[in-house]
């Protein structure tokens, strides 16, 4: 018989090096990972059996057997699952395919604590065995009727061997020779304890020296009233490979139009923000407890990829192929039903437990915003779930569109919002002035995506959503008499003002579409507004950053003809036109900065030095 020796892929070597030398981590989890692989293999076999005419060892009971030898210090985990061919052994246990795992690797090698416990979430769980193993032997025989057995073996230090192995049953047997400091795992008591902790819900019997340890059924198939909160939490931890507590769960079942049972969880943390890259979907599709597709991409919209859980639908044909899943009208129907239910559930949460919803929003709101910009089907439900700060909220307090509408003034029929880098910057900026005076509430949107979301939604409850930096803003005239009077402060005469705007347009040239007299300014000399109404300044910033400049149209500069600086400019224009040009350019640049838009810094800095020099001369 021939034994071949193969090198591990470089990433695997690196990962193994960390796993073998990590002292601080919870070692117990290696067993959870191996059992979860065994359970996956059994699920896959159960599924495959329905598709094939003939399978190898068809009589073998679907179960996981674990035995220990405390003399030899070995631990053996056997499953009668799908097994692996020679090629599969080489590919699955010698390389890392999934890109998220590479991020995990970088995090691991940089992190001081070397927390290996997340290993299962990144698709490299098998290698956790090397935390406790001196050597690992994997004996496997695939379910194919004409398959042959192979043995994979390694001590984790750079290479592994592959050799044919005769007399194997279907499935996989993993024999671990325990390290000297891990002999405690050659003990049934310890093994049973770990199984109860991590692997209680595995839907196949796990037997330790013949005795079945896990006796709990699939939680989602039980009725709500019988399930304790702790059971939900435990189940969540199991299916999500997670250690946090879920923030909320939805357990629901329906008989019509489809027989569906679903148990969905919102986790506690958003790992995408922790630098792990894009999350994979976390909901698996079952038919009567038989796995159809793990972490299905089809069953929920992509923007719900943060949700973990199980969807079980009796009406799905068990032997549906991956391709058929994608094209299935039934799957599309399930997706719509579940998504609607899930969003409704979040709405109820917002009503009944506002503090919990706020936490969900802070952590996962970004996904709901992604949905609002990309998913027409659920746009209305999603818009009800949006939350922002506003001019009428306390700092940090979040307001819904419905809250806003309830407080709208008589005569107001639009919803206003403005983007800025912070609450402070918005509240003291020029855009808010006219709203303050009119006592109109304005949403403060502080994320770059927000304006895309609100533009995309367009309206809520029949009220248009309008960005406060639009040029054609038509505000309701809600001022009382006193305020109107105070407005009669001195302004430039109309002919002077008209001539000034014309001159400024000439000076600024292509940089602006037009220069106009503003009726929205109070404290600020000038403001930049968007005549197209298509993009807000915040959206423009994003488009520039992503090189979509061609989409951008020119802006209007509006000037406050009651402002000292503008009035002074009108005089200066006659006295020293060159210097007045400098001032006009500077006023425009300043307004651009307040709109959060880029300007050309070099000429601006030079110009501002010129202005300072002149100020010092006086
Ligand atoms: P993951 O389970 O997330 O895919 P692992 O590192 O745990 O990552 O396992 C890698 C792959 O090895 C699995 O996807 C599976 O194809 C294969 N594998 C591991 N254990 C078994 C087993 N007991 N039976 C069959 N295949 C297995
Ligand atoms: Mg695994």
UniProtKB/TrEMBL annotation:
Pfam families, sorted: HATPase_c_3, HSP90
Task: Name the UniProt key words of this record, in alphabetical order.
Answer: ATP-binding, Chaperone, Cytoplasm, Nucleotide-binding, Stress response
Q: Which domain of life is it from?
A: Bacteria
* Gene (name only): htpG
Extract one GO cellular component term from the record.
cytoplasm
What CDD domains does this protein's entry cite? HATPase_Hsp90-like
Protein's name according to its UniProt entry = Chaperone protein HtpG
UniProt source species: Candidatus Desulfobia pelagia
Chain residue ranges for the region called C: 542-618
**Which InterPro entries does its entry note?**
HATPase_C_sf (IPR036890), HSP90_C (IPR037196), Hsp90_fam (IPR001404), Hsp90_N (IPR020575), Ribosomal_Su5_D2-typ_SF (IPR020568)
The similarity annotation says: Belongs to the heat shock protein 90 family.
Binding positions (ATP): 33, 37, 79, 84, 92, 99-100, 121-126, 172, 322
The protein's matches in Gene3D superfamilies, at most eight in alphabetical order, are given as:
3.30.230.80, 3.40.50.11260, Heat shock protein 90, C-terminal domain (1.20.120.790), Histidine kinase-like ATPase, C-terminal domain (3.30.565.10)
Q: Which NCBIfam families match?
A: PRK05218.1 (NF003555)
The listed locations are: Cytoplasm
Subunit record text: Homodimer.
GO MF terms here are: ATP binding; ATP hydrolysis activity; ATP-dependent protein folding chaperone; unfolded protein binding
Q: What is its biological role?
A: Molecular chaperone. Has ATPase activity.
Region (A) spans which residues? 1-322
């Amino acid at each position: 018989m021939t034994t071949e020796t193969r090198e591990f892929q470089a990433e695997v070597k690196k990962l193994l090096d960390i796993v073998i030398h990590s002292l601080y981590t919870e070692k117990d989890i290696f067993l959870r990972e191996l059992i979860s692989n065994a359970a996956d293999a059994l699920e896959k076999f159960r599924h495959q059996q329905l598709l094939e005419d003939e399978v190898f060892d068809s009589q073998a009971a679907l179960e996981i057997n674990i035995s220990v030898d405390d003399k030899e210090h070995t631990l053996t985990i056997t499953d009668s699952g799908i097994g692996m061919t020679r090629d599969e052994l080489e590919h699955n246990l010698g390389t890392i395919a999934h890109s998220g795992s590479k991020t995990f690797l970088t995090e691991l090698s940089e992190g001081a604590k070397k927390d290996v416990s997340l290993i299962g979430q990144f698709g490299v769980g098998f290698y956790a065995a090397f935390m406790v193993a001196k050597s690992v032997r994997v004996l496997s025989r695939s379910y194919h009727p004409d398959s042959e057995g192979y043995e994979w073996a390694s001590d984790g230090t750079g290479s592994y061997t592959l050799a044919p192995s005769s007399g194997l049953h279907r499935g996989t047997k993993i024999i671990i020779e325990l390290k000297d400091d891990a002999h405690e795992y050659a003990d049934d008591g310890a093994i049973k304890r770990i199984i109860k902790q991590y692997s209680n819900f595995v839907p196949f019997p796990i037997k330790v020296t013949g005795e079945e340890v896990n006796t709990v059924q699939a939680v989602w198939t039980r009725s709500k009233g019988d399930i304790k909160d702790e059971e939900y939490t435990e189940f969540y931890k199991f299916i999500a490979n997670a250690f946090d507590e879920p923030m909320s769960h939805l357990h629901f079942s329906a008989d019509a139009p489809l027989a569906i049972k679903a148990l969905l969880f919102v986790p506690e943390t958003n790992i995408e923000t922790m630098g792990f890259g894009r999350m994979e979907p976390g909901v698996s599709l079952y038919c009567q407890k038989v796995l159809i597709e793990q972490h299905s991409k089809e069953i929920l919209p992509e923007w719900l990829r943060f949700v973990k859980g199980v969807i079980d639908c009796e009406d799905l044909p068990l032997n549906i192929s991956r391709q058929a899943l994608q094209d299935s009208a039934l799957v599309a129907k399930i997706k719509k039903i579940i998504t609607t239910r899930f969003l409704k559930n979040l709405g109820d949460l917002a009503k009944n437990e506002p503090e919990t919803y706020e936490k969900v929003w802070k952590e996962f709101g970004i996904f709901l915003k992604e949905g609002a910009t990309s998913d027409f089907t659920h746009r209305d439900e999603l818009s009800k779930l949006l939350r922002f700060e506003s001019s009428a909220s306390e700092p940090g307090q979040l307001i819904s569109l419905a809250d806003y509408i309830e407080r709208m003034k008589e005569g107001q029929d639009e919803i206003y919002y403005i983007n800025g880098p912070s609450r402070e910057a918005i509240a003291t900026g020029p855009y808010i002035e006219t709203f303050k005076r009119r006592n109109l509430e304005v949403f403060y949107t502080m994320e770059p995506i927000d304006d895309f979301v609100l533009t995309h939604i367009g309206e809520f409850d029949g009220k248009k959503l309008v960005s406060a930096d639009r040029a054609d803003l038509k505000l309701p005239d809600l001022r009382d008499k006193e305020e109107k009077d105070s407005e009669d402060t001195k302004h430039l005469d109309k002919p002077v003002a008209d001539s000034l705007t014309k001159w400024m347009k000439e000076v600024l040239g292509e940089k602006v579409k037009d220069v106009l007299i503003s009726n929205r300014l109070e404290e600020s000399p000038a403001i930049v507004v968007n005549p197209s109404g298509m993009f807000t300044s915040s959206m423009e910033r994003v488009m520039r950053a992503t090189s979509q400049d061609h989409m951008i149209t020119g802006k209007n500069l509006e000037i406050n003809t009651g402002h000292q600086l503008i009035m002074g400019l009108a005089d200066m224009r006659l006295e020293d036109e060159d210097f007045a040009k400098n001032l006009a350019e500077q006023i425009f640049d300043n307004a651009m900065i307040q709109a959060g838009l880029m300007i050309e810094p070099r000429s601006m800095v030079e110009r501002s030095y010129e202005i300072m020099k002149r100020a010092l001369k006086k």
